[in-house]
């Protein structure tokens, strides 16, 4: 079993950058797809970025493409989400998740979820 633990959230101003980290305890992330999702108040949880267990180019939601960069460090058993040019609409609780399946985009393919970290972007 993998237990993701997120860190790095906080309060920033529009245009700032922030890096989120997600470290796995228990088993390694190596053999799992890893995804970042976010949930704003009153909204459904939505896909932000995902990396296949095979590696390769990460996948991104259109709303963050060009601003966010996901990466994984298998040696450190950690995944990262580098967020730049942050906007107020990026305000949400950000979750890291691990799972398996044909797609990194959908929550149903993720078995293990972190507790989330709050990101607040002020205008």
Topology record:
Blueprint: E1 2-7, E2 10-13, E3 18-26, E4 33-39, E5 46-51, E6 59-60, E7 68-73, E8 78-83, E9 92-99, E10 110-113, E11 117-122
Parallel strand pairs: 2-11
Antiparallel strand pairs: 1-3, 3-8, 4-5, 4-9, 5-6, 7-8, 9-10, 9-11
Question: What labels describe this entry?
Answer:
mainly beta, four-stranded antiparallel beta sheet, 0% helix, 52% strand, globular
Mean pLDDT: 94
Helices and strands, in order, run as EEEEEEEEEEE
Indicate the low-confidence ranges by residue numbers: none
How much of the residues is beta strand, in percent?
Answer: over 45%
Quick one: biggest sheet? Answer: 7 strands, mixed
Oligomer: single chain
Number of strands: 11
Radius of gyration: 13 Å
Question: SS-based structural class?
Answer: mainly beta
Total helical elements: 0
Describe, in plain words, how this protein is organized in 3D.
With 123 residues, the protein is mostly beta strands. Helices cover 0% and strands 52% of the residues. The chain contains no helices and eleven strands. It has strands at 2-7, 10-13, 18-26, 33-39, 46-51, 59-60, 68-73, 78-83, 92-99, 110-113, 117-122. Strands 2, 4, 5, 6, 9, 10 and 11 form a seven-stranded mixed β-sheet that branches. A hairpin with a 6-residue loop joins strand 4 and strand 5. It is globular and about 40 Å long. The model has no long low-confidence stretch (mean pLDDT 94).
Describe this structure in a few short sentences.
The protein contains no helices and eleven strands. By secondary structure, it is mainly β. The mean pLDDT is 94.
